[in-house]
Structures are given as C-alpha cells and as structure tokens.
Amino acid sequence: MTYDKWWQKAVVYQIYPKSFQDSNNDGVGDIQGIINRLPYIKALGVDVIWLNPIYQTPDIDGGYDISDYQSINPQLGTMSDFESLISEAHHLDVKIIMDLVVNHTSSQHEWFQKSMVSKSATNKYRDYYVWRDPVNGHEPNNWGSFFSGPAWTYDEPTGQYYLHLFTKEQPDLNWDNPDVRESIFAMMNWWADKGIDGFRMDVISLISKPKNLPDAPVKENDTYGNPGVVVSNGPHVHQYIQEMNQKVLSKHHWMTVGETTGVTTDEAKRYASLDGNELNMLFQFEHVGYDGNSNAALGQFSGYKPTLHDIRKSLVKWQKAFAGSAWTSLYWSNHDQPRAVSWFGNKAPEFRDLSAKMLAALLHFMQGTPYIYQGEELGMTNNDNFHDISQYRDVEAINLYRTTVLEKGLATSNDMLDYLRVHSRDNARTPMQWGNQLYAGFSAHKPWLEVNPNYKTINAEAALENQNSIFYFYQQLIALRHKLPVITNGRFDLVANNETDDQIFAYTRQNSDMVLLIIANFTDKTVNRHFDLPKHYKCLIQNYHDDLLDIIRPYEVKVYQYAPNA
C-alpha cells in the first residue's frame, strides 16, 4: 500500500470565519481578516485551511443554512475578497477547502421558494425537497429535529409537510431527484473554477432517506423519534457519492472529507476507501461522544466525562480498522465540540499547557490527517463566563433551553446552564484570542459573541513570544509529520498490556526504517512505568524539559525514536 497522496501528509487548520478576525470593526470576523492573518497560519506550518460556510445565508444556524451557494455572505465580504484569499493563500502554498452543505438549504433559497409555490407535477422544484401529505391529520412520521421539536413543518397553502432534520429554516433536499444531484454537481464544479482545493461535506451521511420514511425509536418520556437511527447511511448514499466522485471529485486535485454521523467502521471504510471511489477521508464522532448526556433534552444529566479507557478504546479501534484500507481525520475539537483542553485535558493554570501539548502529540502521531481548530494551538478553553441563556447565540443551545426548561419543565435553568457551559457549541465559537487588548484583538467593536475573559493571558501574542508555548509545540509536530514518513505509513500498535492502564496511553508507529514510541499521561499524578527501549534511541519531542525515562509526570507526553532492529 502506498501513501503518496498530498493530503495524507497534510495538516489542516479549521477557521470559523465569524470568530477569527474582524477587519472592518463591525464585531464580526470576515474574509479580509483571514487574509490579514495568513502569515500567522503559515508560521504555524499547516498545509490547508478549512473554512466554515461563507455563503449567502440568513444565519439561523451559523451559516449552515445557505440561501445562495454561489454568493458570499456580505457580512463576511465579497467574491473579490474570496478570490484574493485563494490567491494569497496559494502564494504561501496553503490550500483552501470549503464547507459543502447539501443535505439541506435555507428556506430562503430560490429552489425552496419555488418549491413552495405549488405541489403541481409541473413545478419541478417541488421535488427538490421532501414533501409529504399528512398522515391521520398530523406529521408523516414521528421524526424529531436534531435541534428540538418535530422534523416536519406544515405548509398550509399546499396542505403538505416538508422535512427538515435541523431547523425549520433548513429544509432537506431530495437527493433521489437526479436534477437535484446535477444542480449540486454543477455548483461544485463552479467553485472548482474559482480555484478551491476541495470540500468538507456537512452531514453527508444523511443525504439518502429511506423511501418509506419509517418511524424512529423514541426515548422514554420524549415526544419525537431520533431520525439519525433510520437516516444515517441511507439506501443510496454510496451510489450518490460515487456519482459525485465521477462527475466532480475525480476531475480535480482535491482533498475531500465527509462528516459521517452514525457511521460504523465497516460503513466508514466505504466512504473513505483508499481505492478513491468516494471521499478521501471522514469525520467520525465516537471518541468525542462519551459525554453520558444523550438525554439532556429530557433534563437527565449524568456529569460523566470520558475516561482514558473510553478514548483509547475508540481511537485504537479506528486506527486498526482503517489500516491499509481507508483514511481518517484526526481531531479533538471543531466548531461543534467543546474546547479540547477543557473536555479531554485539564484547564487548571498549572496543567493547561501540559495537557494541551499531551493531547496534541498523542493525536498527531497517529495515522490520518490532523485537524487543528482555531485557537487549539493556543490552548483556548471553554467560556466559563456563560451564566445566562441570553449570552448564547447557538440555535441548538437556545432551542434546547427553551424546550427543556421553559416548555417542558424537565430541567431547572441552573442545570441546563451548567450543561451548556460544558457542551454548547458556542464554547468553540468565541472570538479568536489574538492579544490582551480589549476584545482580544479580534475587533475594536463589541463582538457578536462574548470573548472568553481569559484572553488576557491566553492569546497569540503571548504564545509567539514564548518559545515553550503550545503554538511552537504544534509547529514542531507539524514539521515532524512533514519530515517522517513513518507517521504517514507506519503500522499502529498499542503497547503490550496498555489496554487496561487507567493512566497511560502508549502506542508505537513502525515502518521498515523507524519505530516511534508515544507515551502519554492522562492524569495529574506522577506515575512509574517501564518501557523497554533499545540502547540507541532518542527523545524526539516532549512537553517537559528533561527526560526521566520510567518516571512519567502529570500530563507528560514523550516520543522516542529508534531503529526497528536496534
């Protein structure tokens, strides 16, 4: 098996444009702000920028409700700005991939507006979406929206319901209609002509719905069924992605990654097979899903945090399952997840840097393409200052609070706010912390979402002035991935007897030329472990200043390098 694709050695930096850098002081990040910060991104050493949606949008769901796929959100800039971003980034040898959101559109999209005009067979746009007659005077099935409430909205003028797995302003497209697929493929090729380098595909595993739209399982005391159980990896999803590959993806030197909700390892290998018939890689969610709060909408909160056993079991399973057959994405956080150091690490001042570096090294030495979410390289944390629902902007958090606290009375306001302070997507979307000046150097105007108060000590300016900062640790990790083929092509093995260790995660990467031994302490305790190292070895990278071999200090990570037969 060869590993010669450019994206297999690449490292991706994810940007949430509204929160990255405001260039015109209106409190909202923009494309010109990204251009202004390209030297910073280049200095980090990454190869690719993934942009969250920058299209025309009513912005009900953070830009994931697109009203025009071929226009730029004017709050973020112009098409000319975007073309400049492509040009400037490419000049620095940095590629740009965009978010592709084609499970649904905005209800303000021209297609949906035309769809609503009439249910007549002569209205071709009616079949662009999933419309159904009422069943016994109510919704066609029991599906609930992922963002609370029913997944169906009734349109009185035409007497039918339309499907929306997310908000009612995000109607689902009907991928069974070949005209829909052709329209999407044409749009993708249009962006290719603009010079982009690929797409991250939002909830792509949901595009093919079962024809009979069966009811979904309902949790105890809940009103609606979970559609993800019956919609994920639907009957024609691979057929449609292979068609996309034939008509679009295979024609370009692109990187493609799919967000695949509800995927198993076997199913995942079909999406991201190294044979190249579908996508290059995917995001799966098992290792970030151990929150024990799947019933938060019912006011049931467990307080459970992922253990090392949970994390290791999941990561090892996916490393082994994909070996030699498929490619995966490596990530701790993104725009939908809590900040990594708050959830998986330890944000206490004495441990934040150490645990952030430990998490970074543990992940970056695995096989796959690493993704760094903006601010992760600084050790940005969740915003503990969110104490009232009025401070939140995320539609998912606001809807959950409304339905659970105000409408159903299933949870107290304090319980729900405690939950959101840990899990809300707004934690990842607080403005990038560039400096210790007002609003963290993000803007001279009050931002659209509150800046985390710890910006005075956690910011890019401070990181760049400190050679031992998390930023420079990430820089070293990226340089090593570019330099050492073993990180791309080496076999992954868990160290013997590590399966049950509740403090240390240790694994090796090995090819014919080199062995890497990665040892990570997930606790705030010093522990003793003995690892058999050959006579000739070196410590490649670590987050402490000296190597004590069998003594592993709190949140310590160290990577040893040696020859296979040493």
TrEMBL record:
InterPro entries: GH (IPR017853), GH13_cat_dom (IPR006047), Glyco_hydro_b (IPR013780), O16G_dom_2 (IPR045857)
Gene3D superfamilies: Glycosidases, Golgi alpha-mannosidase II, Oligo-1,6-glucosidase, Domain 2
Assigned EC number: 3.2.1.10, 3.2.1.20
SMART domains: Aamy
Keywords annotated in UniProt: Glycosidase, Hydrolase
Transmembrane segments: none
UniProt keyword annotation of Nuclease present: no
UniProt-listed Pfam families: Alpha-amylase
KW Hydrolase (keyword) present: yes
GO MF annotation: an example: alpha-1,4-glucosidase activity
Record-level GO BP terms: oligosaccharide catabolic process
Family statement: Belongs to the glycosyl hydrolase 13 family.
Protein's name in the database: Alpha-glucosidase
UniProt source species: Leuconostoc citreum (strain KM20)
Gene for this chain: agl1
